[in-house]
Amino acid sequence: MSSITRRAFVQAGAASATAQDPSRTRPNVLFIMLDQWRLDCLGANGNGVIQTPHLDELASRSANFTQACVQAPVCVPSRVSFFTGRYPHSHKNRVNYTAYEQPEPMMQRLLQNAGYETGSVGKLHFHPPTAAHARSTGFDTVLLDDGIRRTDLYSDYVKWRSGADPNANVHYHTTASDAPSGGNPYRALIAREYTPTAWTGRESRNTVRALAASGRPFFLFSSFFKPHSPHTIPEPYDSLYDDAEIPLPRQVDLDYIHQLPLPVQKMILRGAPRYAMDRRRLLWMYRSYYGDVTWLDEEVGAILAELERSGQTDNTIVIVTTDHGDQMLEHGLFGKNVFFEDSVRIPLLVHWPGRIRPGVYSELVEAVDLLPTVLELCGLPVPEHVQGRSFAPLVAGQRSLYEPRRAQFSENIMPEVITNGEEGYFFIPGKGVGGVRHPDAKMIRTNRWKMNYYVGHGGELYDLQADPGEWINLYDDPGYQGIVRDLKGQLLDWMIAADENDQIAREWLV
User: Fold this and answer.
1) Angle at the Cα of 312 (from 310 to 315), degrees rounded to 5?
2) 230-234, 299-303, 435-439: lowest mean pLDDT where?
3) CB atoms within 10 A of CB 510
4) Taking the CB of residue 280, how many other CB atoms lie within 10 A of it?
């Protein structure tokens, strides 16, 4: 799109926002993130078992992207890509709990500079994991909880619970020891109202109420730790899916795992491998995961109801998404850190009454596209350092102004560097990580093909149309070498072009 037509689109968006409510010249932004939420765990995306009525109803009124992709299948790199609109190799946050030290401002700072009141509730995953640091990135108010023991010292949730819960000495992830025979072994010991999920939902509603009364446009990031493992879940959600027929992933063995490229093998087999775990226990994990998603559906519904009570629904852009998916033992692995669809494809709902056209969108979009989209919908300029591509014209009914992506890209350190020392997976210059000399893996994904490239360790090529489960690796098949060469060429072009705006100086300095 030319700069002239792009500028006209931005100005039109700003004028429309002003016309809707003269007291608020720009729309609010409510950004809700669940952690490790699978694309297929949403009724609106075709899951006939899971109960997500509030999210399904929101999806019916939203742009529902079914081919959205994260730039890294791991928390911190992915979140920083969302907030900066930049790829991991550019923003430099490649593993969890590493400091963001680049000069480019994040979403909250850009909106704060434009006059927004900004707030954050729940999991940020920034480093250092303190509210003071979060405020330094552009949040006016911060209520923090990252959901793991190592950051409990900085958790506002833990501080609140210590005075509110009579059983505060019991850790919030503790499972009950008195689960009835045949019952859910992941039933939580603490009561629902004292859990991180309940706290995040409650404080998000309180913050919506306070921000809506401020008289200024607001940006709120509401971030839940769940459905991330561990799968501890309180009553009544622990038994919600006891009688449900939940399909389990195909069981794999070592023969299959050893056919995968070495970096993927390392991810699956690190620590205590669980590829052959008891299927009954796996079913309880799925029941708990589904229960968590249903509970989160209720929390999201309650936040949206609070937004409605505030009178700001029509003037608020609502985004609901996740930082990555969860393998849930697909291909023998729990968690993420790989490029399989269950890790890199994500749910993405974007809603703004009267401005965003509802529907199912199959275009290839990336996490880095969210920042420029939000800025354009708010009538704000997109800084040159942003590498994402706004899909605002697409969802606003201006398809002729939108240039569709040919491909999506993701990258990750594989095997994952364990910076706290667990499992001994350190990066050693010149030697790599865990026996993998070059751990920086890259993925390119088109409408049909996905290629994952591991320098020195081969790759994977999957035909997503014929083999959506990604079981048949065609990378070394002689009949597909032309496709491999084409995808490698596109991958190289992306690596060269992504940082173009950073590399070319705007003026001579002498």
Assistant:
1) 175
2) 435-439
3) 2
4) 9
